[in-house]
Amino acid sequence: MTSTRKALGNITWLFSEKIVTMGLSLLVSIILARYLSPSEFGKLNYLISFIAILAPFSALGLNALIVRELVNSNRDDGLILGTALLLRISGGCIAIVLATVFIWNTDLLITSNWLVLAAIGGSFSSLLLFDFYFQSRVQSQYVVTTRIIVLIVSSLLKLTSVYFELPLSYFLILVILEPIAIGGGLFFFFNIKKENGIVFKFDLKYAKELLSQSRWLILSGFMAIVYLKVDQLMIGEMLGSEDLGIYSVAVRISEVWYFFPVAIVTSFYPKLLKSKATPSLYRYNLQRLCDVLFWLGISVALLITLFSPQLISTLYGKEYSLASQVLSIHIWAGVFMFLRALLSKWLIAEGLLKFSLLTHGIAAIVNVYLNYIWIPEYGINGAAWATLISCALSSYLVLWFNSKTIPMALIMTNTITFPYRVLKNKL
């Protein structure tokens, strides 16, 4: 099987998962939003955002590096996986300690006990290491199977809780258990499907080498989550749980599409790395991927913008009607998130890890600042504009200010100006 056909098959698996998960997640989200009320739904999403902000500490910036090492490195797979796993477990423990210290010194929207439990549950995302093993083998069917099983079970439990009119605490518990279940499922499939001879080993020297390469990605990953999730935490603290619930409805619909660019780039990343030896082919692959991602993002944004009022009122009801304005703004940040999926992999392939930190750092600072001044004045719409501007800045505009990233800026510009170039050639 050719690498292209294998990648396309991998995408089919990933997209199949997302079609199922998107439909089921949206259905459950709609039912939960209607059942819990905007205020309680806001508290639930506050917890989800808190877990997301802790995730980079468990990942330690190793995600794409693990794939690269398994594809290109001559090292033993057991050494790569064993070393990376111990590092990620250590990162999860650090996240628990940091979260506990932060929680006990801060007044937050929901009680500290829930947030401590969320930090412990989130630490199990260290087992997502096995997701990247399957990525390196272009075998996403096992990841898809795990996620779908967990989603179905979790969804059934949530719907059962709604049926029996259980309180918010039951839904918080289910959210905390999800990363534990996914990590356990991936570990199960790894043990069944792993290649013969893989035995986990740890090498301190190699661990230091990985951390040396990933130190910028650790901060970059944290900054990326900050500029994507800090708006929800700030809305919760500055406006309250009801506004956060309304905002979260719009963000759920907007962000559900973010998986598509990740699936496309993830599946073609091994092929992209191999084509790097031939510059012309490498640039061609980059341009083609960029074209697909950008115009897919534009198509989604246009459709959602046109139908956002009807979408919100039909799915969530009048209580959430204000979410349509937020959605029509926030969805355009997705265009730049589609481009960001390719940019992130390109920065790793080019060894520009410091620049990944720089772009995310700028975006995080700008987003926090704009949220701080716009949320009190413009409410949840201000938070949506802050997200859009910070995404555009970090995924495209900032590339023009460094000579090493201008090649990617030119590729993106070729994509963005494609209609103009076609029209110009015809005239």
Helix and strand layout, with pairings?
Blueprint: H1 3-59, H2 63-72, H3 77-104, H4 112-122, H5 129-136, H6 141-163, H7 168-193, H8 204-238, H9 241-255, H10 259-275, H11 279-316, H12 323-330, H13 333-349, H14 353-378, H15 380-395, H16 406-416, H17 418-426
What's this model, at a glance?
By secondary structure, this protein is mainly α.
Primary descriptors:
427 residues, mainly alpha, single chain
Plain-language structure description:
The protein has helices at 3-59, 63-72, 77-104, 112-122, 129-136, 141-163, 168-193, 204-238, 241-255, 259-275, 279-316, 323-330, 333-349, 353-378, 380-395, 406-416, 418-426. Helices cover 83% and strands 0% of the residues. 45% of the residues are buried. Helix 11 (279-316) runs antiparallel to helix 13. It contains 17 helices and no strands. It has one domain (3-426). The mean pLDDT is 86. With 427 residues, the protein is mostly helical. It starts with a helix and ends with a helix.
The whole-number mean of residue pLDDT values reads: 86
What is the number of helices?
A: 17
Number of domains: 1
Helix fraction by DSSP (H/I, runs of at least 4): over 70%
Q: Give the CA-based shape.
A: globular
Class of secondary structure makeup: mainly alpha
Report the major sheet: none
User: Which series of helices and strands comes N to C?
Assistant: HHHHHHHHHHHHHHHHH
**Amount of beta strand:** under 5%
Rounded to an integer in angstroms, the radius of gyration calculated over CA atoms is: 21 Å
The stretches of 5 or more residues where confidence is low (pLDDT under 50) are none
Distance between the termini: 43 Å
- Using DSSP, what is the number of strands? 0
